[in-house]
Amino acid sequence: MRAFIGGHQVVSSTDFVELALGTPLDLWLGVEGESEMEQAARLDAARDILADNPDLPDRVSRVAAEAIEAYAPDLFNVVPLSRPAARRHMSRKGAAA
Predict the structure, then answer these.
(1) pLDDT-derived band of residue 87, with 50, 70 and 90 as boundaries?
(2) Cβ(42)–Cβ(34) under 8 Å?
(3) CA pseudo-torsion sign 51, 52, 54, 60
(4) Cα(52)–Cα(94) distance, rounded to whole angstroms?
(5) Cβ neighbours around 11 below 10 Å, total
(6) pTM of the entire structure?
(7) DSSP string of 20-55?
(8) Per-residue pLDDT band at 41 (split at 50, 70, 90)
(9) What angle do helix axes 56-76 and 13-21 make, rounded to 10 degrees?
(10) CA-CA distance, 5 to 64, in Å (whole number)?
(11) Considering Cα of 1, then 75, then 62, then 26, what sign does the dihedral take?
């Protein structure tokens, strides 16, 4: 089964997130080994995008919440536990032997 967002085929989970948000993840998360200059330029671009799209944080939260809801059992490996039977404590009243 193929998935498409806005006419673009989703090949990986990263594609899904990038297409759903409209920005590459590296813009927000950075890349390993980037210089201070590259980081400053990336953060400036991110600020510009946020200024032009004030609803982006809400969209990000919605996408994250939907993904968690859809994949919670797999993400958290949730297994229902059975409840142990109640223990009864025996009374030790009476004469000692």
Answers:
(1) low
(2) yes
(3) negative
(4) 81
(5) 10
(6) 0.54
(7) HHTS-HHHHH--TT--HHHHHHHHHHHHHHHHH-TT
(8) very high
(9) 160
(10) 16
(11) negative
